[in-house]
Amino acid sequence: MQKYSRILFHVYMGAFLIYLLLPLLVMGGAAFNDSKLPTIIPWKGFTDQWFIAMWNDNRIWIALRNTVLVAIAVVIIAVPVGTAGAILVNSINGRVRSILYGMMVAPILVPGVVIGISTLLFWNQFSVGSGLHLSVLGQVSYIASFVMLLVLARLQSFDQGLEEAALDLGATHAQVMRRILLPHLYPALGAGAAISFFQSIENFNVTLFTRGGADTLTVYVFSKVRSGITPTINALALLLILFTLGIAIWYEVSRRRRARIEAAREAEGRRAEDAELA
């Protein structure tokens, strides 16, 4: 019975990985197919013309630049706002906490179209026109909630006694924040920044209604789909996937290196303690 369960598990995992990776492989393969349509069937020969066409398409690079700038701005604003919200929710108790938590999480549940239109109408009341700056504000209104959830989860493992001990020893609240609380939150802050960045890059609905005349990658791809998509989009997507994969590999290698260093330090500490006892 255990043997069949193991076989079934491997079959399921194989089917799951194929389901996830096959569309990406087809998409990447279409970037090298000598066909005007983004497909690998029929295969008409290997070519790099779509990468050359992508390189010569100024609109793609403008859209990419705008997308990255908006994503960076979203990270800069969403991480502090989400962190402050998490600390506030964690510091209160009772019914007020539940109400405040619900209000802060609510933007995640609101459709992006509603957020985009609401952002545009709200800021128009203050004579703020549409543009990438409005896209940043609209995206932050719900992306900050993701950061808040990550930081709030990290705060559950924080020992409040450390803050009290530091204050009793004469530390200021700013020193407690900088030297005790923030170091504990660094993993959650890093994860929140990464999620904010990628959530902003893939955002479409909010950006579509608030961007004005500016282009972002999602809007650019949408416009190409309407006018006639070419494999240049596949070439761009393949490069983005390789870039993301490279970052993931770098992070994993760095994490394992840090883990080995920490393990070596702990082993050295244990050896030192054993030597002292001997």
Explain briefly what this protein structure is.
Helix content is 81%, strand content 0%. By secondary structure, it is mostly helical.
How would you portray this structure in words?
The protein is mainly α. It has a domain at 59-234: Orthogonal Bundle (MetI-like fold). Helix content is 81%, strand content 0%. It has 11 helices and no strands. The protein has helices at 2-30, 49-56, 58-91, 95-109, 112-124, 132-155, 160-168, 173-202, 205-210, 217-227, 232-277. The longest helix has 46 residues, at 232-277. It is globular and about 75 Å long.
List its salient traits.
278 residues, single chain, 0% strand, MetI-like fold, mainly alpha
SSE diagram, text form:
Layout lengths: L1 H29 L18 H8 L1 H34 L3 H15 L2 H13 L7 H24 L4 H9 L4 H30 L2 H6 L6 H11 L4 H46 L1
Helix pairs in contact: 1-11, 2-11, 3-6, 3-8, 4-6, 5-6, 6-8, 7-8
Secondary-structure element sequence?
HHHHHHHHHHH
> N-to-C terminal Cα separation, in Å?
52 Å
Number of H- or I-type helical stretches: 11
Under the CATH scheme, which architecture of the domain at 59-234 would be assigned?
A: Orthogonal Bundle
CATH T-level topology of the domain at 59-234: MetI-like fold
Detail the poorly predicted runs.
Answer: none
Any idea what the shape is?
Answer: globular
Determine the fraction of residues in helical runs and give it as a percent range.
over 70%
Task: Please identify the top-level CATH class of the domain at 59-234.
Answer: Mainly Alpha
